[in-house]
Amino acid sequence: MEKLRKLVNEIAYTKNFSKLSPLHFSLLPFLYTSSSFYKLALSIRHRFFLSQIHRLPLPVISVGNLTWGGNGKTPMVEFIALFFHRSGISPLVLSRGYGGGDEVNMLRRHLLGTSTKFGVGANRAAVASHLIQKYGHIDIRKSLWHEKQNLNWKAHNSLDSEKIGIVVLDDAMQHWSLWRDLDIMMVNGLTLWGNGRLLPLGPLREPLTALRRADVVVIHHADLVSDHALEDIESMIQGIKNSAPIFLTKMDPTYLFEVGNINAKILLTALHEATILCVSAIGSPEPFVKRVQEMGALYVDRIDFSDHHIFHARDIGMIRARLGELERKFGFKPIVVVTEKRLIPKVGQHHNGQRNSLSRELSTAVCLELSSNPRPLVKSEEIPYHIIKLLMGIRVYSFLMHFKETKEFIVYSLHFKETKEFIVY
User: Which of 198, 276, 316, 349 gets the highest tally of CB atoms within 10 A of its CB?
Assistant: First the structure.
């Protein structure tokens, strides 16, 4: 199944089918037919949900995309939720919980200690209604945002700290049954929309015309894309919806930690002059590998699995074999680096019926997690400011103190750290 997924993924991101192998070509008739049925089902589903859209009694922000995985949706959800928490507004994050809930589990870890609530389930309207009834809600559209800022209103000191003030939908561009006040569309700057075809022939969940529904477009991994390519992407987006503001983001590695022990933070310099095996099970592994390569490793190898992959014994065997090859080649034990999304990568059932972590299965290797945070590289305007401006329709003054200009970017910052090209917080 994993090999089939890789073949389908390669087809989805190949624009010139003449370059495909005979094995790839053998799959095309099935993929063409399936894509046609998918398009028909998508149209029927869209008409059905448009007739029964549920509205919540407070603002809703949707973060989504048009393609499968690797677009930075979950980091953006975290960024927005943390922003509202720090501003004294308790956010509710709603997730479908796809793939065993690894993404929402990562969000829970990152937002631990904040006023953020979480709801998981396919029927997000029902989940939200239950939690709003449980905690209560405040409609921030009926209050003066800048007054709360000037009063330095903190959620944990407020009598209304438990009341939900904003709903953030994770991966909800195609979740049409719930009304949203703001649609943020994430775009992977490296892979874009692949061959431009609908699933499963291509990576698109919807036709590109769905960009017209976006209120904000964010190009992720923008620092890994050339200026010329960024201009082409922006031009393409504006050709579909000229009014949508476009922002840029990147991911910066922050630290490493041992698998299964999130409190044991390790400096990124631990990878310097080391032999690394990157093991990933995410939508877009290329940026992850590029980040590791930039850390001064002696050699970086990689094994990529499909998004939300559940590790089985044969996968562990493959990883062990590769580690043995690297150790024989370089004379010392390699380090396995996995993405934080796979904090405890699921391994198939064993004789005791328990699921063990990847680090336990690879007991002879050093297994480390790489934690990354989203870094806004914002052209023209700052993301939270623009969100509030669109969401509430009022002028916001207090955010201006967080602006600092460079020649190319204005970046949201509480604590500035200057680099050669960008200013990041």
Answer: 276
